[in-house]
Amino acid sequence: MGTLYLVATPIGNLEDITLRALRILREVRLIAAEDTRHTRILLDHYQITTPCISYHEHNKLARQADLLAALQTGDVALVSDAGTPAIADPGQELVQACLAAGHTIVPVPGPSAPLAALIASGMATDRFAFIGFLPRQQRERRELLSDIADLTLTIICFETPHRLLEALADIGDVLGARQIAIANDLTKRFEMIMRGTAGELIEHFTHQPPRGEFTIVIAGAAQTESRKRERHRLRAAAPAAEPATIAAHLRRLRAQGLSASAAVRQTAQDLNVAKNTVYAIWLEIAADETA
Fold first, then answer.
1. b/e map of 224-257 (b: 16 or more CB within 10 Å)?
2. Is the same domain home to 104 and 127?
3. Hey, how many other C-beta atoms are within 10 angstroms of the C-beta on 258?
């Protein structure tokens, strides 16, 4: 049975590819590419003639069967348009299908936009989370930001140019004046990494319209050890809030237009109650109002 190779390709500069990656791309019987025209530029540059077929979000279901069939007779390489495949793209579904079918998965590491942006951001690199593309809809985007607001680790995400200003506005509103680094055109001639608060970056991109995809690195929530200890002390010392008190607090926040996740999080903080307890009461309120 064939092996599926996950081959990282350059995120801009064609020199940023490993010798191993070039060898694998020459040796496999087939290359599955997010955009064959884009990948062909790389292959032609290195005089690689391996056949390519497309594999992307819109044809992943139809192509999956073709790739599994190809793996029965030889090895296949999966590449994305740029960087490491199977991260924030349909490659992860192909990996799962190949594992279920008994094929071997071999990573061929190399360029990665999230890691490149992180190490150049100047922010903490020892603990971080990559959350992919931010949601398109503002409500979902703000709910996600609310859910991660208390995380003290560095956050990395992607955003498109036409949503960048809206995303920065939501980041500023929900997360406050944190330090942010925005990377664009990494490893290319006009590589850009800007640092500042959401407000400062909005001002810049209002006058310089964004182009291309962006990698955003956001500093984690600031929380000293003393604040941690104080929070634990208050939770231990405070008497448990009555369900009626919790419900009243939730209804007030709901009337103010807060989402479920935001209202539960705020109530848990204000009343020093576990989130799962608050969420259970929220579900009861919602059930009563729809009954």
1. eeeeeeeeeeeeeeeeebeeeebbebbeebbeee
2. no
3. 19
Give the CATH number of the domain where residue 75 resides.
Answer: 3.40.1010.10
Examine the domain organization and report whether 235 and 214 are in the same domain: no
78 in the same domain as 131: no
Structure tokens at 221: 């929530």
Half-sphere exposure of residue 184: CA atoms within 13 angstroms, side-chain side: 17
Picking from 62, 93, 111, the residue at the C-terminal end of a domain is 111
At 1-52, the pLDDT tens digits run: 899 999 999 999 999 999 999 999 999 999 999 999 999 999 999 999 999 9
Question: What helix, strand, coil percent values describe the chain, rounded to 5?
Answer: 50, 15, 35
Q: Which residues in 58-86 are b (16+ Cβ under 10 Å) and which e?
A: eebeebbeebbebbeeebbbbbbbbbbbb
The whole model's pTM is what?
A: 0.74
Containing structural domain, residue 171? 114-218
